[in-house]
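RECORD TYPE: inverse folding
INPUT: structure tokens
STRUCTURE:
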């Protein structure tokens, strides 16, 4: 049974949103990975400062894509959602834990005053940025290999610990580091930091080569673990795979030539990542879980799918312009012009202390008793109104 056009269209929207999260969320996670690998407090100070300036305005907003993915999967393909959330509960929970800890670490390391607490929260942010994409990758690897049962009875350990799932996890980590480093190269150049431009250019090159090697290893592993997806990648999705490879090579050439054009460099890296996601979705067609759950069998009724189009249209009209404005303001450095916490603390120390105000004494006992009586009477009246016949009507 072939899937309906509505089902195919919603599945295409889902793949597009997954690609957006892989790109923008991946760049976000990659910043934390480079924060982890930046070195000691003095050696990595400049790199960490640039990472903070680049991701601070947008790091929370990028999770909108993840929320959209979960809601779309839940409402449009409920059998797949139920199976994934049950069989892959452990890696999904670890990914969610990583997102929470990452947010906590990133937020508190900017407000912590003690050096030890700054180091602890910074390490938490960096380590969580490594853990989260890895376990997300194992989830994708489990789905691609078709090892997620349609009706699981609990966590399926073998699904997300297979060689393909583990390789996909490492591939996600490398891809996040690659995209982030590529995006940070023009960020450093726009700020006039020549040393950091070269610093992230070298790391983008290294991450790109590692990502390519892991992609090749995962591709070879798919021939045995996911023959349906492998046949699709070498067949109908081959043009997208070729575009991804060509874009990846083009990025490396631009970095080698030191042609750091912000738009072309970022756009080419984005194409390299997005086409891989699109190719995976096309190669898996017409299945949600290869050979076990088809799009036709796992889709919601037509009325629900029509609702998905409405929601997607509203998101396009309301959310997309907001994201465009956010990224534009971030690129114009208009969101980092406000005083930082350190500046505010310095200003507080420099300003003369305000004249001390006499401390307000405790409220007289008579006032406290009167207030308590009034509140008690109001509460009694409200309870009486609720339980009275007139109130019940």
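DESIGNED SEQUENCE:
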């Amino acid at each position: 049974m072939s899937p309906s056009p509505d089902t195919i269209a919603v599945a295409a929207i889902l793949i597009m949103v997954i690609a957006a999260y892989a790109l923008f969320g991946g760049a976000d996670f990659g910043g934390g990975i480079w924060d982890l690998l930046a070195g000691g407090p003095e050696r990595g100070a400049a790199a960490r400062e640039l990472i903070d300036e680049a991701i601070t305005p947008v790091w929370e907003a990028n999770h909108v894509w993840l929320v959209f993915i979960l809601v779309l999967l839940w409402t449009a393909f409920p059998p797949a959602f139920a199976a994934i959330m049950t069989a892959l509960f452990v890696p999904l929970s670890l990914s969610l834990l990583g997102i929470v800890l990452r947010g906590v670490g990133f937020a508190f390391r900017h407000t912590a005053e003690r050096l030890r607490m700054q180091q602890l929260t910074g390490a938490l942010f960096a380590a969580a940025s490594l853990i989260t994409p890895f376990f997300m990758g194992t989830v994708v690897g489990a789905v691609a290999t078709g090892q997620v049962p349609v009706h699981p009875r609990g966590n399926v350990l073998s699904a997300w610990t297979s060689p393909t799932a583990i390789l996909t996890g490492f591939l996600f980590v490398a891809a996040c580091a690659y995209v982030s480093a590529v995006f940070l190269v023009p960020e450093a150049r726009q700020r006039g930091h020549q040393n950091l431009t070269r610093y992230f250019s070298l790391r983008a090159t290294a991450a790109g080569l590692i990502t390519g090697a892991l992609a090749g290893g995962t591709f070879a592993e798919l021939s045995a673990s996911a023959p349906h997806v492998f046949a699709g990648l070498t067949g109908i999705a081959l043009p997208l795979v070729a575009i991804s490879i060509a874009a990846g090579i083009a990025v490396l050439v631009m970095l080698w030539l030191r042609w750091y054009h912000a738009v072309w460099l970022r756009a080419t890296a984005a194409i390299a990542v997005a086409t891989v996601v699109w190719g995976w979705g096309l190669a898996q067609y017409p299945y949600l879980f290869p050979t076990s759950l088809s799009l036709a069998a796992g889709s919601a009724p037509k009325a629900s799918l029509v609702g998905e189009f409405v929601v997607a249209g509203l998101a396009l009209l309301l959310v997309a312009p907001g994201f465009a404005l956010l990224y534009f303001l971030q690129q114009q450095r208009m969101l980092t012009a406000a005083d930082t916490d350190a500046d505010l603390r310095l200003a507080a120390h420099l300003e003369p202390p305000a004249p001390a105000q006499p401390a307000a004494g405790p409220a007289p006992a008579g006032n406290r008793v009167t207030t308590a009586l009034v509140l008690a009477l109001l509460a009694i009246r409200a309870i009486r109104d609720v339980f009275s016949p007139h109130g019940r009507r």
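NOTES: The chain has a mean pLDDT of 84.
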